[in-house]
Amino acid sequence: MESNRHCEEFYKGEMAERYMLHRPAYPSTVVETIIEYLEEKMPKPHSIAVDAACGTGQGTRMLSTYFDKVLGYDINPDMIAIAQRNEALQNIKYSVSAAESMPVEDGIVDVITVAKAVHMLDLKTFFKEVDRILKPGGVIAVYTYCAPQKPIRMLPSKKADEIYFEFLSEKLYTNLPSAYKTFEVIKDLGEHLVMPYKEVKRPDDIISEREYSISGFMDLIRAFATTKEYLRKYPDKGPKVLKKVKEGIMDAMRITEDDKFNLRLPIAIKMARKPIIQDQ
Q1: How far from the centroid of its chain's Cα atoms is residue 232's Cα?
Q2: What are phi and psi of 272, to 5 degrees?
Q3: Separation between Cα atoms, residue 277 and residue 280, nearest integer Å
Q4: Residue 195: predicted pLDDT
Q5: Cα of 219 vs its chain's centroid, Å
Q6: 31 φ, ψ to 5°?
Q7: Closest CA to 34 of 267, 278, 241, 277
Q8: CA-to-CA distance for 159 and 149, rounded, in angstroms?
Q9: How would you classify residue 53: left for phi > 0, otherwise alpha for psi between -120 and 50, otherwise beta?
Q10: 184: how many CB neighbours lie within 10 A of its CB?
């Protein structure tokens, strides 16, 4: 599958480490929102959760409090190795597997989560796999950092925001059509992401804040698979473009290399419930 090969290719070795270090962690309110929705029709106790395309396990760990067993799967061995190396919780197990064909028995899973990597999956095949392993009444939940539903300032200055979004739209998405297709799927988890069941819930965005230095923020940008692809496609001008972005943001916010600032990140969640027999 092309999307999975893309994931393996861009998150090897150093890129996998960079992903772990610089991708912002999701707040606990993400999982709390998912559990609240699950328990509308499926009360405690909850036995098994699956985190598909789990990467280094950021989202997987958040599930451990609510389930007897949590299974994290990713097609990338380097990501799984990092997750295993950093895991101390006894009820989590990580394995190398494509999200479209996970080694899980039929109908035993309460919740399946997938974060931003949803854009790398063959969704038709993945949703068939979701339907195979979910219990009736179980929930598939997709969440990701996204374009905001309502206007917010992500960086502390309007001009800095404009520089950042100009880089995304005019450099990444214009020059990389596949990246724009990706963006359409995950930008707000709206109409371009069609869930596999009729009962669907898309709550309001959660706004998370994290402190960054300008170097840390640029490392975050470099951790994007699309940035990696852009730099590979444009090895001469790519680094110069990133340097210009960095200098423009620093000038707009009047900061130095040592200064810290808050980055506001909207998070979209879209959930769907497998029908219970009497609901069908």
Answers
A1: 23
A2: -140, 150
A3: 6
A4: 95
A5: 17
A6: -70, -35
A7: 267
A8: 20
A9: left
A10: 15
